[in-house]
Design goal:
Strand content: under 5%
Distance between the termini: 16 Å
Largest sheet: none
Helix content: 55-70%
Number of helices: 4
Order of helices and strands: HHHH
Number of strands: 0
Number of domains: 1
């Protein structure tokens, strides 16, 4: 059955604007909403990284006075953004996936697949969170148990490696929580009575 035509007139060949896509997946809940809002800070981080690179080029080639911190700072800011990007994709349901089977089944079976996929991703996220904790613990504590952040060993010697490992752990724990929320909400959707149009 074909769709009903859009009742709005097509003025001078200008098509009507596409529907606005939700910023976060409704099943992601308030956590998903918060993740998509926080992501704007990381977008600003990329702009700051670019500004630092421009400053470094200017100082190096105009004044012949390069900094000791520019390379580490841009690497650090970019790494933070890429780490957070995985969590952002989960909240928006925009990660890369193979949908060969998913796209050909009915809505009810898709809901079942959503639950199974979320459970599998929850297990993987918990596993990687545990591995990230092992890395973060080594980056935070010396073998004798004293607190000391791992540093880069460069001329600037920043604690960026330790901060990134701790941040990775926090993101993976949050990602696990997000997959748990998704699993719960997909299960709630599965428990709803099936309508004739859902088949």
């Amino acid at each position: 059955m074909s769709e009903a035509p859009d009742p709005r007139p097509d003025i001078a060949g200008i098509a009507s604007p596409p529907a606005r896509r939700l910023e976060h997946l409704p099943e992601a809940g308030r956590l998903g909403w918060a993740i998509t809002r926080i992501a704007r800070l990381f977008a600003v981080g990329i702009i700051i990284a670019m500004a630092v690179l421009v400053l470094e080029i200017f100082l190096r080639y105009v004044f012949n006075s390069p900094t000791t911190w520019a390379h580490e700072t841009t690497t650090f800011l970019s790494a933070l953004t890429f780490i957070f990007g995985g969590l952002y994709c989960v909240a928006r349901n925009s990660h890369i996936r193979v949908v060969l089977i998913y796209d050909i089944v009915g809505k009810r079976l898709r809901n079942v697949l959503d639950v199974l996929i979320s459970l599998a991703c929850l297990g993987a996220s918990l596993f990687f969170a545990w591995a990230a904790w092992l890395m973060a613990r080594k980056a935070m504590f010396r073998p004798d148990g004293n607190f000391a952040l791992e540093t880069s060993g460069s001329a600037w010697n920043s604690p960026a490696p330790a901060v990134l490992k701790i941040f990775l752990f926090v993101v993976l724990v949050t990602m696990s929580l997000q997959f748990l929320i998704l699993t719960f909400n997909y299960l709630r959707g599965l428990a709803r009575p099936e309508r004739p149009t859902d088949a």
